[in-house]
Structures are given as C-alpha cells and as structure tokens.
C-alpha cells in the first residue's frame, strides 16, 4: 500500500509540476492581456484568444477581492511622472485590437464591478472586422464602432492606447513604413478621442525587442510600449532597457492560473 501511495504522490506531483506553483514569486508591474470576451465562433482555431464573460467576471471579482486597484493608462502616466505613488496592489487590464465584444461583454462587467480597463485599438479597422486574421483559422468578427468606443471612454471605465493603423508584423515592414504605422495611429486616435495616446502595444509582440522598430515607437511619442512577452516588468520601469511585458490570459485559464500569473509571472510551462 505504501508503494502505491508513493507512486500516486509522484504522479500527482509530476502532473502538477506543469503549473508554476513551484516557481519563486516575482515582483513587477502586473499587466493582464486579453483579446476577445465571448464565445468563439464555429471554426475558430484561436479559441484561447476568447475568454467567456463568466470567466472574465470571476477573474475581475478575484482581483478586486484580493485588494487590487485597476489602473487606466492615464493613472500609470501620473505614476510614471511621480505625481502619485504606485498602489501596493496595482494591475492594468488590457485588451488588444478593439473588438465589439469588448463593448458588449467586457465593458458592462467592468462598469458593474467598479473596475477599469484599457483597449489597444487598431485604428483602420474601427467599425469593420479583424481583417488581419486569415478567416480559414479565425472567422472575422466585428470591431467596435467609433460611437461605441467613445461611449466607453465617456463612462470613465475604459481608456485607449494604440495598436497601429492596420495590425501588421512591424518587423516585416520597411522601417519607414513601420514608423508610419505607429506614428499615424497615434495621431489619428488622438484626433478621434481628444486625448493623449500615451500607450502602444506591438501587434503579435513583433518589434518589441527589435531595437530599430522600438526606437521608432518611442520617437512617435508613446510614453509606454507593451510587448506580448509573458512576464512582469520591474517597477520603477527602466524605459531604455525594454518594453513592458504582460500576462496573457487564455480562454482555458482558471482562477488558479490567474493567481499564478500574478504571483509568479506565468501559470503553466
């Protein structure tokens, strides 16, 4: 019996080792990265980009229940400038791309629970569809309209950052074209929303660790640039040393995954 119990314990330990509970806790700014809130459409091969409204609600409730304060980009800007301190338990909730489902599902949940979020918007697809996706792997879905985006901003619950004009792989473009994608998106978004776009996220994470591309992002006037690399970034942030990393929240993630992301910077191997 002892041998059986020992074998079972080894199997359980080995199976659970794929989660990061055994890693050392890491410090740094906690930035959650979401994409779509809702149910994946038939034929989607990117289901992990979809988090159900029920899971999203539970995750936001978990954050608030643990004493986290959700920040807007403008809050982070004041902290960066030394106008206010970073809260002891601060988190940024971010969404990439600007989908209509952010308006239909994420925003009402954030508003109801008293939390805040930030959306990186692809300017040229506002009111259209996610045209950068191959519909054979991810069916096109609606992007939020300009009126919907303005309504969310007016609520004080949502702020915006830039995600380029058209969601390209920036490293695949000429440096001039990449610079235009970033600078023109900032200009257009600021004109559309009447406020500074201080934050930028690299589509696919491409270019975040490419020095010439990143230089152009900073030259465009963004204070913050965000990667798609998994992890947390030490704060105070060494801006010259690299972009801010994020914690990608997948559709299959549980509350335990979220807790590990926040404490260890990753949930699974």
Set out the fold topology.
Elements: H1 2-16, E1 30-34, E2 36-37, E3 50-51, H2 53-65, E4 69-70, H3 73-80, E5 90-97, H4 100-113, E6 117-121, H5 146-154, E7 158-162, H6 175-193, E8 199-201, H7 211-219, E9 224-230, E10 244-248, H8 255-264
Parallel strand pairs: 1-5, 1-10, 2-3, 4-5, 5-6, 6-7, 8-9, 9-10
What features would you describe in this structure?
The chain has 269 residues and is of the alpha/beta class. The protein has one domain (25-264): TIM Barrel. 36% of the residues lie in helices and 16% in strands. The protein has eight helices and ten strands. The strands form two sheets. Strands 1, 4, 5, 6, 7, 8, 9 and 10 form an eight-stranded parallel beta sheet that branches. The protein has a two-stranded parallel sheet with strand order 2-3. Helix 4 (100-113) links the parallel strand 5 and strand 6 (117-121). Helix 2 packs parallel to helix 4 and helix 6 (175-193) packs parallel to helix 7. The radius of gyration is 19 Å and the shape is globular.
Q: Which second-level CATH architecture applies?
A: Alpha-Beta Barrel
Largest sheet: 8 strands, parallel
* Number of E-type strands: 10
Tally of distinct domains:
1
Q: Provide a count of the helices.
A: 8
What is the percentage of strand-forming residues?
15-25%
Shape: globular
* Mean pLDDT over the full residue set: 93
Oligomeric assembly: single chain
Class by helix and strand content?
alpha/beta
- Name the CATH class: Alpha Beta
**Which topology does CATH recognise?**
TIM Barrel
Instruction: List the helices and strands in order.
Output: HEEEHEHEHEHEHEHEEH
The helical percent reads: 25-40%
In whole angstroms, the N-to-C terminal distance is: 32 Å
Q: Radius of gyration in whole Å, from Cα?
A: 19 Å
Low-confidence stretches: 5-15
The CATH superfamily is Glycoside hydrolase/deacetylase
């Amino acid at each position: 019996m002892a041998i059986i119990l020992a074998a079972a314990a080894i199997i359980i330990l080995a199976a659970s080792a794929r989660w990061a509970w055994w890693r050392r806790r890491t410090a740094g700014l906690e930035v959650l990265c979401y994409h779509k809130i809702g149910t994946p459409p038939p034929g989607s091969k990117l289901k992990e980009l979809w988090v159900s409204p029920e899971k999203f609600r539970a995750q936001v409730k978990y954050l608030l229940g643990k004493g986290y304060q959700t920040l807007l980009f403008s809050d982070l800007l004041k902290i960066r400038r030394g106008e206010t301190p970073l809260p002891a338990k601060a988190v940024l909730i971010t969404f990439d791309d600007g989908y209509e489902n952010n308006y239909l599902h994420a925003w009402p949940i954030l508003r109801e629970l008293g939390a805040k979020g930030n959306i990186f918007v692809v300017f040229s697809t506002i009111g259209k569809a996610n045209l950068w996706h191959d519909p054979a792997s991810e069916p096109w879905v609606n992007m939020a309209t300009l009126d919907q985006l303005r309504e969310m901003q007016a609520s004080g619950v949502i702020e915006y950052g830039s995600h380029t004009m058209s969601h390209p792989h920036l490293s695949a473009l000429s440096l001039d074209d990449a610079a235009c994608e970033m600078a023109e998106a900032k200009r257009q978004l600021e004109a559309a929303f009447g406020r500074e776009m201080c934050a930028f996220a690299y589509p696919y994470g491409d270019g975040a660790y490419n020095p010439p591309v990143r230089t152009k992002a900073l030259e465009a006037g963004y204070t913050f640039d965000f990667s798609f690399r998994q992890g947390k970034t030490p704060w105070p942030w060494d801006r010259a040393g690299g972009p801010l990393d994020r914690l990608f929240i997948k559709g299959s993630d549980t509350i335990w995954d979220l807790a590990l992301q926040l404490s260890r910077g990753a949930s699974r191997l």
